[in-house]
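hiii so my PI (J.) wants the whole complex modelled not just the main chain, which honestly fair. so below is everything: two entries, each one labled with what it is. i double checked the lines twice but i was tired so who knows lol
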Amino acid sequence: MMLIECPHCGPRDENEFRYGGQAGVAYPERPAELGDEEWAAYVFMRDNPKGWFHERWFHTSGCRTWFTVHRHTVTHEIRP
Amino acid sequence: MNFLFDGRSYTGLPGDTLAAALLRNGVRIVGHSVDLGRPRGVFSAGSEEPNALVQVGADPMVAATTVELHEGLTARSLRGRGRVDPAAADERRCDKGYLHADVLVIGAGPAGLAAALAAGEAGARVILVDEQPRPGGDLLNSRVVLDGAPGQAWAASAAARLAMLPETRILSRTTAIGYYDHNYVVAVERRPGGERLWHLRARRVVLATGAHERSVAFPGNDRPGVMLASAARAYANRYGVLPGRRAVVFACADSGYEAARDLAAAGAEIAAIVDPRGGPDRVTGVVTGVVTGVMTGVVTGTTADGDGVLDGVLVGDRLVEADLLAVAGGWSPVVHLFSQSQGRLRFDEELQAFVPHLSAQAERSAGACRGVYGTAAAIADGLAAGRQAAELTGFAQPVPVPRVPESDEPEPSPPAALWVCGDDPAASFADLHRDVTVADLARATGAGLSSAEHVKRYTTAGTGADQGKTSAVPGVVAALLGTGPGTTTFRPPYTPVSFATLAGRDRGPLSDPIRVTAMHDAHVARGAVFEDVGQWKRPWYFPLPGETMEEAVERECRAARTGVAAMDASTLGKIDIRGRDAGLFLDRVYTNLYSTLPVGSCRYGVMCTADGMVFDDGVTSRLADDHFLMTTTTGNAAQVLDWLEEWHQTEWPRLEVAFTSVTDHWATVAVAGPGARRVVAAIAPEAVDLPFMTFTEFAHGRVFRISFSGELAFEINVPWPYGRAVWERVLELGAVPYGTETMHVLRAEKGFAIVGQETDGTVTPQDLGMGWIVSRRKPDFVGKRSHARPDTARTGRKTLIGLDTHVPEGAQLTLDGRMVGHVTSSYPRAVLAMARGVGEGQRLVAHDGGREIPVTVVAPVFYDPENLRRDGDPFVQGGVSSFEPVRHSPAGNFAARFEAASKERVRLREVPFVPMWEVRGQDPGRGLRLGPAWWLVTGERPEGGVEVSGQRTVLEISGPGAREVLLTGCPIDLHPSVFTGHAQTSLAKAGVILERVGQDAYRIYVRSSFAAYLSEWLLDALTAYVASFRK
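here's the output for the full assembly
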């Protein structure tokens, strides 16, 4: 059970949060103008690195804030 | 103390383990081995025991070496494996608890006690976890002298000093079983009434878990009478039990000499000491006078009497008569938790053991568990580890450091690098628990297996309940392969844990939260049969006496189609949405338009995920220009709120809109049927003339004119406290109560799809034949672009169809032998299916198990396709009595039980009907701040507040024991220095806002639908606490 630092509530157990996958994947400005490949890349394709990863977490059981965590996917080390 | 073992009665002494008591009574054979059925005796004196496995009460398999004797204990021997008896009465009341510390020390031997002292006296919050009934570790078993006094006196004095520290907590009889991410350690405390599973989180961990003595694989090394030297010493010193009269000591390590000395002192005859090393001078001194000489060599076999119990030891050609063979094979540092923490091990050639190498977490090992042997050295190492842990957690102030005492132990010398000897591999056991011999291991390596992991899987060595803690397997495999020893992954739990312990109090009615509506008690009183919908209990149908389900549903349907019927629709998710951009936001998340919806109107909408698939549906009403009320499906309420907040926070933070869950605040009664107006008129006369898809406010709430049955229907929304009264009134007025089954029949007959029934995450609105709800005018909405993807836009996708024949849900449909679809909803008069490439009139085959049923495709509307029924019967003016509903609070029924359970140390009550408001955006200057721009305010209505008085109720727990009760279900740190105000977190399995309102008083704000569950849980926790306090 990881301990995740919520920017509002402080450190809480992992099961108070919902995982939101890779961070920084923005909704495209004008989806209608994208080709099928580009759109599919937005909808379906995400990085899955072995190592450091910027990812989104949502504090469902607490303040209900989305925030970004920098986590090592092998060691679970979390950097501020 | 009297006890029964295998039906015979014996007497032991207080403080005995079952193993000690059995040895005290001369019981040599305690069980038989798992595969070969060989007689086995007590091998160790701790939780590493591979042999002496017994059944105690409902616990099917425990090590006799870990069972504390008590009057009347009843145990049975096992053949290596226990069997759960589901019918056995389990009187245990297990629970769990959460604690937080600066420094967690695991093991209260010399190193652990020293570490706890150093950290605790520096001011750190310390938890010391130890498996034994009292601190001391190996000092309890030994006769070591520290500063001229028995080592146990040092341990007692250290424990006494720890007890003086207010922020130090010692958990005895507690075994740390798992070490997980971010210094999360799980431990099992054996309490009189049942185990407690502790969830411990620490900023630093000191592992002081000691070392296990290991065995050597030689022929006949499994006979009762063969025992670890450290165990023989423990029985002699600690329990005053001689495990044998005439002993041979196989001293591959110095501990053999200590055992020989102590056994002799206890009155045993030492027949021989066999030391492959020849007996290093500095240790043989301790046995001068005990034995005439040390034989250089190895044990090559054993002999046994008719029962299979040891009666002789072979050393080469020489047979030495003996009833005890004490084996000192060397030590295996207990690296299990270190390895579980993902730390890396290395093999130390001198120690012939695996020791911690690279840490992966904020921990440090101290003492024997990292190969630092000797009492004084372990204490010094523990002090250093404790001091370091304190410094690293901010307790660096200089304090007098406890002194390292002088020990009378000789300098340790390296053990023999000996894991296997003798020449009968088939009789030499490498893993006693699993009956794995050297010959078995040789077969594995002979088959080409060269890694320890593969050998383990091939032979099962190390997979027993003891996880091979004392086994010689790594060294034997290395010897067979001619390589260095390899190790397998250490996995939790360190010792076996029963499921009852893991379940704790989460069993029976508390196994999962049961969410109920404001009308639940009325449903129960009416004999409703309930259906689980997620965590909700929803009435499935309301049978009259003697009625079958079919009859009840038929009657309920008839009432809704021809008269008037009512359903509790409170479980539908409800989200209050307000803000200048609320309409714009809804345009982006729904497939249809909401910004154009007139105030006072309702609109049905469908939401898609970004891949274009249907995610949820429901009716959203416009309460004001900047204010909407969204309803969601029962099952998706939480996900939809998450979804809205995700899009708002992560994609469109500039939109001025805020979301507040009001699911529990509003109780909803759906009144359906041509006669519905008459019922609604008696409660909310304003609603009688409502046009379809509009709503009105009334004295106690709102009435919406929406329908999920095709009939004239209203949904009456009132705050939770009024829900029950409104429901009762509606039924008094003649509405027939109906449940979810009838709701499904009514909607299926109208061809209304249900999210999660007709859809499964691969279905678009167009697939459901609902292209009409997908806006072509809007430039974008979530999912729009995906509707133009080649796969979603193609023809030949599964679409919603009807079938003319009642075939079971889930039946597969074929056309000319090709699978074309499946049945999604099925009722006598309405069958819906998803199928591809078929048209009305086409003949298909439905497959139900082995049956093939011919069916014909029809339009997916089975009732009133022209929507003629929608407006029902006209209203006939009648006598309308005024309606003054009484209030019920969510935990109102518990008042008497709360009162009865409240004792001096802890009290429980509901604070009902607290007016509550949620405020977003602007700081109201009072209340509890729940999020960056989110407050809960009680009392007077704040500006811009959303009323949520019915959304939660307040339970108050107070008294000096309140914190101890809360920590059995609340994972956050409740220490008064940390938890000063309030927090939004969980208690048991319910989300709560916890507020500290006094030194020992807490308010728990809990969702109304969870209030009954949490009340039951708190009563249970409180009763358990009061009971444990009496003990």
